[in-house]
Amino acid sequence: TSTVLWLRRDLRLRDHPALLAAAEEAGGSGVLPLFVLDPALLGPAGPTRTAWLFRSLRAWSASADGALVVRSGEPEDVVRQVAREVGAEHVHVTADAGPYGRARDERVEAALSGDGVGLVRTGTPYAIGPGTVVKGDGTPFQVFTPFSKAWTAHGHPEPATSPPADLRWVRRVDGEGVPDDPEEFTRADLRLPDVGEEAALHRWEAFQDRLDDYDTDRERPDRDGTSQLSAHLKYGEVHPRTLLADLAASRHSGTKGGQTFRTELIWREFYADVLWHRPDSAREYYRPQLAGMRFDDPARGDGKAHLEAWQAGRTGYPFVDAGMRQLLTEGWVHNRVRMVVASFLVKDLHLEWQLGARHFMRWLRDGDLSSNNHGWQWTAGSGTDAAPFFRVFNPVSQGEKFDPSGDYVRRYVPELRHLPGKAAHSPWDYAGGYDHGYPQRIVDHKAEREEALARYAAVRS
Ligand code: FAD
After folding, report:
1. Which Pfam family is one of this chain's hits (predicted)?
2. Region 412-426 average pLDDT
3. pLDDT, tens digit (0-9, with 9 covering 90-100), for 38-56
4. Does residue 60's CB lie within 6 angstroms of at least one atom of ligand 1?
5. What's the CATH superfamily of 288-460?
6. What fold, for 3-124?
7. Which of 5, 192, 331, 390 could form an S-S bond across to 22 if both were Cys, CB 3.0 to 4.6 Å?
8. Is 62 in contact with 195 (CB distance < 8 Å)?
9. Is the CB of 375 under 6 A from ligand 1?
10. pLDDT at 28 (0 to 100)
11. 402-412 pLDDT, tens per residue?
12. So what's the pLDDT on residue 391?
C-alpha cells in the first residue's frame, strides 16, 4: 500500500504540513503524489493561468523524481480510483477554503468513505486558516483593521520542517502526464516568468532587497516595485508563513516596507476569511444596497460594445487600455491599475462588477476567487471597507499621477509610443496623437461620472 498526497494549491515541497503528514503515515512504503485535472476548475481558466498551472506541475514533478500522477476527471471518481489501485488507507490534502473546494472535498470524502478510506486535511493555503479569527462574540470580522489586529494577536505557527530525508515518492499507477501548454498560449503573444517553487523562492529573495522602497514604489506601475508573488502564492509554490517568518527574521521586520508588505499578506488572509463566512459574496453584492442600481445590458447595444472595448484594451483611455492589455499578455496587472480599470467598468461604463471579475478570473495568472471578487466589490463600492461609490477614479489623472513618465502606457500601447512623457496619457491634446491608430475615447469621463452618481442617488434615497 501507499499513502496518497492529493495536491491542489500546494505545489511545493518546503513548509508543507500535509506532505509531512503523508510522509509520516507512509513510513518506508512511499507517498504517491496525485493531481486531478478537474474540468470544473480548468474550464473558467484562460490560457495564461492554465499554462502556469501546467508548468508548475511539471516543476513539482521534476523535484519529486518525476513521480507525479496526473489524471483528468471528476475528483470523486479519480481520487477514489487511485486510492483503490494503491490500496491507500488515507488520502492527504491541504484543506481548501473556497466554496467550490470545500464542497468538492466533502463529495470526495463521502466517496472515499464508501471504501473505508479517510480524507485527511492538514494545513491551509493561509498562515491562519480562514474562519479561525473571530470577534469576541464569535461573529466574523467585516472590517480589515480590527481583523488585522486580531489576526496578529492570534499568531500563526512557524513554517513546517523540511520533508524527511528518507521520503520516497512512488509512482505505482498510470497517469496521463502533465499536458503541454494550451495551444492558445503558445500561439498568441503571451508571456510568463519562471514558474514553480524554486522560481518563487528566487523571486522572494530578490524582492527582499527592494523592500526598502516597497512603501513608495508599490504605487508605481511603471516600476518593478511589487513582489509579483501573487501567482506563486495562488498555487502554493510558496506558503505565506514562509514569507512572514523570513520577514520577521530579517532587518525588514520593523521597516515601513516590511510592515506594509506584511499588511498586504493579511489582506489576502482577510478576503479568504470573508469568503469563508460569506461564500455568496463571490457572486452576490456583499452589501446588497447596490444590487438594485441600474446597470447597462452587456448583451446588446452600447453595453455590449463597451464591454468588448474594455476587455480588448480599446477604450481610448490610455491608462485603462495599458492595464487591460497587460492583463491579456502577462496575466498580471499592477494593483493600482486593477483598481482603475475596475472603477472604469463599473462607473464609466455602468456595467456590473461581476462581468469584470469573470474576465479577470479568466485572464489573471493569480486569479483567486477571494482576492479578486472582493477586490472588485471594494472598487464597486459594495464590499467590506469599500471605497464609497461616489468616489470615482479619474482614469486620466490616475495615470498621470502613478505613471508620471508615461512609460507604463507606452510599454503596453504601441500606438502611443510616439508621444513623449506624460503626453501618452492624453493623445487628444497633441497634434498627431492619433496618427498610429489609437482609438478615440468611447465615453466622456465627466459625463459618465455624473451619470454614475445619478444612478447611485436613485438607490440611496
Ligand atoms: P505585492 O504588492 O507584492 O503584495 C504581496 C502579496 O500580498 C500579493 O502577492 C498578494 O498575495 C497579497 N496582496 C496584495 N494586495 C492585496 C489585495 N489588495 N488583496 C488581497 N491580497 C493582496 N490578488 C490576487 O492574488 N488574485 C486576484 O485575482 C486579484 N484580483 C484583484 C482584482 C481587483 C479588482 C483588485 C483591485 C485587486 C486584486 N488582487 C488580486 C489584489 C492585488 O491587486 C494583487 O494581489 C497584487 O497586485 C499582486 O501583485 P504582487 O504579488 O506584486 O503584490
Report:
1. DNA_photolyase
2. 98
3. 999 999 999 999 999 999 9
4. no
5. DNA Cyclobutane Dipyrimidine Photolyase, subunit A, domain 3 (1.10.579.10)
6. Rossmann fold (3.40.50)
7. 5
8. no
9. yes
10. 82
11. 999 999 999 99
12. 87
